[in-house]
């Protein structure tokens, strides 16, 4: 039986190797060209780091589907299920580029100063450049997805997934903004928002290789479901970590969601248990809050059982997601997809 | 021989009929759905009006290619060159949706208050909603373009055009912003910026039906060139109109480009003739400028020959664009495309 520590080590190693390959591919697909300032701003957040979890899910799913040993086949000439080769790395870069576009625009909307430990793009550059950098990444993601060399009918289906995913992310972000001004949000509403805002890009990452490599509809649907489940679990865990991980490690102020009245599964649950969420933290200013205030708020949320509730919900989603992977051949890459699912809710940051 | 007045009447009538059909199609392709506020904001500018010139170019080009009499064939079941039918209206709506997305984000970047005589989306709603409304239209345009029912290989090519067009629009907008802070911009640099910021969407509008209906590469390229030429002419004329049309008719302050130090072909030419462009208008505040100041500035630009120079350049581009239409069958729709080209630089607003 694998211990969480051994699993975390294995996952981090697998992620690290794929991350290195994705990091090599990003400047190839998105070179700094004229106008330089625009492309520098577009690359700024991508170059600042990131775990590349979505591309890792995508590349590992491709390996599981093609039934090849992990990291033994060139992602740039990857075998389809009907004996051709495509560039599956393009698809991986495309979803990371979409992720980066949404972060740039989200940081403007939330007026967040920091991201990945560096200034947000609209702080490092300016509002105009940040809007435009996001817009550029948006169309570049479509251009890159069109370069895989997959059969036209598969490319069309992949682009449909990419476009509807982007639409859902916008809808989810819109719901998220609306929720900040609403006192009562049900756990179902919250989970719907998380599905649209976050989980759909994991779902796209998991099902895109199935589409591009030529898998059947049952497999495509099961992998989409896996991505939705682990994506929701990921966001719930992110909300837990926002309360429990020291600010230095988090790369931003711990508890900032609470200060900014963001709805999370934790606050939604706590309110249903009678906790006065608005009274937990006096200030709305992330720079003014004290660690002691946040410790006190977290203690109240723990007492209401809300953090346990979030952990249990995430755990259930991960189990459900893993069960969906039975459509895949039994191989090392499939095991890794299970471990990634576990890691998403066991990770410390 | 057609007089400009007769031509304007014919073009306006042709545009009006297609506009009505496009206006019917927009709510069908982009219904107000949950989250309502997001979709209302996304539709706000589309519903506020607009001449629908790009969709008109697209639909008329389709008619010329298919060699059918204008407005006699249902755009929703339009004949391809190889005997199938596709929904060419989807392509027309898609380019208009892209246009609307760029206007919403451009108005934020330029902090313009008015558009089409109504408040800009970030003024009517707020910054967050305007960013998100633009982002939603962006992916919706791709979704809608994917619904034409064209053969997959044609759909893929159409999406490549759409994606690269969006990238170029961002690059052009970035150059435009950079130019505001630069004293010296050459006419060549200015025309390159205009090509990327404005003309590429006309080029896409003209060549997309050729791609989707299955025309040959020579025809696709010629139509792309026609769109680039008339798009550049359109923008040059827009810059002339910004100086010469009364504010009420323009839907915004006349001369606002001069006040905001926007480079236009007119200012680029005038500077090369020794005119002190920065000294033409004292204020940088559109609300503070007087009509007399603008009259005085326009007189100086006229004296330097800069407005004539812009008019002549636009005229040459239109002639060049019309000549490219010889790849099309000689029919009524082709004549209309010539008339649209002439109209773009003869129009009074």
From TrEMBL, chains A, B:
Record protein name field: Dimethylallyltranstransferase
Q: Which InterPro entries match?
A: Isoprenoid_synthase_dom_sf, Polyprenyl_synt, Polyprenyl_synt_CS
Q: Where is the signal peptide?
A: none
Q: Please report which protein family the annotation says this sequence is part of.
A: Belongs to the FPP/GGPP synthase family.
What cofactor is needed? Mg(2+)
UniProt xrefs under SUPFAM superfamilies: Terpenoid synthases
Keyword Transmembrane found: no
A GO molecular function assigned to this protein is:
metal ion binding
Organism domain of life: Archaea
What the entry lists under Pfam families is as follows: polyprenyl_synt
Q: Which GO terms describe its biological process?
A: isoprenoid biosynthetic process
Q: Which CDD domains match?
A: Trans_IPPS_HT
* Keywords linked to the UniProt accession: Magnesium, Metal-binding, Transferase
């Amino acid at each position: 039986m694998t211990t969480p520590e051994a699993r975390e080590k294995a996952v981090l190693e697998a992620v690290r190797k794929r991350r290195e390959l994705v990091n090599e591919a990003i400047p190839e697909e998105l070179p700094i060209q004229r106008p330089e300032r625009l492309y520098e701003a577009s690359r700024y957040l991508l170059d600042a780091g990131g775990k590349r979890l979505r591309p890792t899910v995508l590349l590992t799913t491709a390996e599981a589907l093609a039934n090849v040993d992990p990291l033994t086949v060139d992602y740039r000439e990857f075998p389809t299920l009907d004996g051709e080769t495509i560039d599956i790395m393009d698809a991986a870069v495309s979803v990371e580029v979409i992720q980066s576009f949404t972060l740039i625009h989200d940081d403007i909307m939330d007026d967040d100063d920091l991201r990945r430990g560096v200034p947000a793009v609209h702080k490092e550059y300016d509002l105009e450049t940040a809007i435009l950098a996001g817009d550029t990444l948006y169309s570049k993601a479509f251009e890159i997805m069109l370069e895989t060399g997959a059969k036209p009918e598969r490319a069309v289906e992949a682009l449909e997934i990419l476009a509807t995913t982007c639409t859902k992310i916008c809808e989810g972000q819109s719901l998220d903004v609306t929720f900040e001004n609403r006192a009562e949000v049900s756990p179902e509403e919250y989970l719907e928002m998380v599905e649209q805002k976050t989980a759909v890009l994991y779902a796209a990452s998991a099902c895109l290789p199935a589409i591009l490599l030529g898998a059947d509809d049952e497999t495509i649907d099961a992998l989409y479901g896996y991505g939705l489940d682990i994506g929701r679990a990921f966001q719930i865990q992110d909300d837990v970590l926002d309360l429990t991980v020291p600010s230095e490690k988090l790369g931003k102020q711990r508890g900032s969601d609470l200060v900014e009245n963001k709805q999370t599964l934790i606050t939604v649950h706590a309110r249903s248990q009678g906790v006065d969420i608005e009274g937990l933290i006096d200030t709305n200013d992330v720079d003014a809050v004290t660690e002691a205030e946040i410790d006190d708020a977290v203690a109240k949320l723990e007492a209401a059982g809300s953090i346990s509730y979030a952990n249990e919900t995430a755990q259930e989603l991960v189990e459900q997601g893993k069960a969906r992977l039975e459509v895949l051949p039994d191989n090392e890459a499939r095991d890794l997809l299970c471990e990634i699912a576990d890691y998403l809710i066991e990770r410390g940051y």
